[in-house]
Amino acid sequence: MLRILVLHGPNLNLLGHREESVYGTATLDTIDASLIKLGGELGAELVIRQSNLEGELVNWIQEARRDYHGIIINPAAYTHTSIAIRDALAAVGLPTIEVHLSNIYRREEFRRHSYVSGIALAQIAGFGATGYLLALRGLCEHISASGSKRSSGGSTSVTGAKTGEH
């Protein structure tokens, strides 16, 4: 079974209540539930986490190298500022899909640069919550096609496990 780490960055815990004209009305819980459902259909075990803290995201990325096949990340505001997140993703070497609810290239100038995109397998932006589902399908297909099967290290996590506060 594929193991995928899904990381949500800062302020995504406010989805559904924050700038609905930009980010839509879906809550993070709704997005996570959709991911878990699709993960089950695709035979992928997901661990989903959200943090407003850059260092916590970096720690989770570093820990992923042992037990995961790939990462889906919405670094949110850290997209444009965090070399640390970019370097952690590059260091673990896992296929990574960068997701953004809005099209960052149609927004303010400062949002148009991503430190993550240069090392990500792909970037999906502007499809709202559907972008996460596209990322999961694409990442599972890529991993399956590339034959990259990382050992789960004997972990017995439940499919669709959701950890962390958000």
Q: Layout of SSEs?
A:
Elements: E1 2-8, H1 20-23, H2 28-42, E2 44-50, H3 54-67, E3 70-74, H4 83-92, E4 96-100, E5 122-125, H5 130-146
Parallel strand pairs: 1-2, 1-3, 3-4, 4-5
Helix pairs in contact: 2-5, 3-4
Q: How many individual β-strands?
A: 5
Could you name the ranges where pLDDT drops below 50 across 5 or more consecutive residues? Answer: 149-166
Order of helices and strands: EHHEHEHEEH
Strand order of the largest sheet: 2-1-3-4-5
Structural class: alpha/beta
Radius of gyration, whole Å: 15 Å
* Structural shape: globular
The biggest beta sheet reads: 5 strands, parallel
Note the gap between the termini.
26 Å
Give the % helix.
Answer: 25-40%
Proportion in β-strands: 15-25%
Output mean pLDDT.
86
Figure out the total of helices.
5
Q: How would you describe this protein?
A:
The chain is of the alpha/beta class. Helix content is 36%, strand content 17%. The protein has five helices and five strands. The protein has helices at residues 20-23, 28-42, 54-67, 83-92, 130-146, and strands at 2-8, 44-50, 70-74, 96-100, 122-125. The chain has a five-stranded parallel sheet, sandwiched between helices. β3 (70-74), α4 (83-92) and β4 (96-100) form a beta-alpha-beta unit. The protein is globular, with a radius of gyration of 15 Å. It starts with a strand and ends in a 20-residue tail after the last helix. The model is unreliable at 149-166 (pLDDT under 50).
In short:
39% of the residues are buried. The protein is built from five helices and five strands. Helix content is 36%, strand content 17%.
